[in-house]
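User: I need a structural model of cytochrome-b5 reductase from Collybiopsis luxurians FD-317 M1 for a docking pre-check later this week. Nothing fancy, just the predicted structure tokens so I can convert them on my end. Input:
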Amino acid sequence: MSEKEVEQLCTGKLQATPEQHDVISKALGLPSDASDTVCLGRPLHGNPRERAHVRSDKIPHHHHDNIDATHLVRHARARHAEALKAGRTIVAHQGLNPPGVFTWLRLKTVFPYNDDTARFDFAFEDPEVISNPLVSSTCVVSAPEEKPLYEEPGTRPICPPDDGDEDGPIPVYRAYTPVTKRDSVGILSLVIKKQPAPPDTPYPPGKMSNYIHALQIGERLGIMGYLQRPPSMIPWEINQYDAVTMIAGGVGITPLIQIIDYSLHDPSNSTKFLILNGNSTENDIIMRDELESFQQKYPANFEVVNVLSRPPEGWTGESGRIDADLIKKYAPPPPAGLGLNALVCVSGPPAMLESIAGPREGDRYNGYTGQGELRGALKEIGYTAEQVHKF
Ligand SMILES: Cc1cc2nc3c(=O)[nH]c(=O)nc-3n(C[C@H](O)[C@H](O)[C@H](O)COP(=O)(O)OP(=O)(O)OC[C@H]3O[C@@H](n4cnc5c(N)ncnc54)[C@H](O)[C@@H]3O)c2cc1C
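Assistant: Understood. Predicted structure tokens for cytochrome-b5 reductase:
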């Protein structure tokens, strides 16, 4: 098999036959009893200064999430190539090919939360697989050959996936956070919000989110995971912090849920988690049942406060936007000095991130490259940059 063919198989441009799949697995050194030890021991953190090659002159619109997804794919592939060259065995996470190669999973069930957001459970080929995602991590998804999805050259925010492929059709890559509940068997879960076309613009609705919402049960999606790369992901250890305050906006809650589910599920966990969960309306609160069940099961270690900017009549929760006063009302005060035993995580739309913690380093044209200076409400309250993580 030529390198080009392998590349096409890995990116979903070609569909692998079972024989080809075996050849690729052997070439990648995949053992039959894949375990997660290598992924856990050597998380795939990249060089935060690495920049994407962006054809910005040709592109009218840029979206940093898409750049992030392409970075993640490139970085995983580079790691993969490096390992192969060094003759190292690459170990995959359960049920998935190693980072760098897509695994084709079939949609099993859809659980709608509201009109635009749902949880999608994809079935592993082996129904016995316990997926337990790496924490914290993301996946990158891609459409399969039988129902491809490509970027429109020159109109989308893209870095070419690989040198020499700039003129061919570029598959759509998007990052989604795996939120599979700990110890779930045979499935990998993603919670995805359908992105509408921005009002009063000629732009089409979001490509991948609408594609996934239109998938039929049994159809396939390419999933590459579990991937870690700063500045979005944070390596996580049980009991690293005494108290963690999480400030979430909309679907930005997914990376926080991943950490909470992992931590609370561990019987030795003593970290106290608080989520300030910001949404527009009550209908927009996603994963509400999951959050409430954490609260019932772990009342000493978990609390959720829902904050609505457009509350219904009779709403007894908090309303308005999350700001310094609201954070001070619920969160423990910042520890003095550079004590690292308390952390605040912020995950939400860029405007929210900026008002609460200041923008990340980098820009939306080339992707974010670092955490950036701490500003906004958290700075006003007295937190230091070391006590804050911006997702
Ligand atoms: C690490 C990470 C984790 C993530 N986790 C999740 C998650 O768990 N769940 C989730 O739902 N999302 C998540 N995202 C966001 C996700 O990756 C996608 O960015 C999101 O789903 C939108 O992708 P899309 O293909 O649907 O939209 P895109 O096609 O990327 O479009 C995005 C928006 O831009 C508009 N648009 C299209 N063309 C133009 C143009 N020319 N000019 C201006 N605007 C235009 C579209 O209408 C749409 O509103 C995550 C992102 C990252 C980086």
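Before docking, keep this in mind: Residues 3-227 form a domain with the Elongation Factor Tu (Ef-tu); domain 3 fold (CATH 2.40.30.10).
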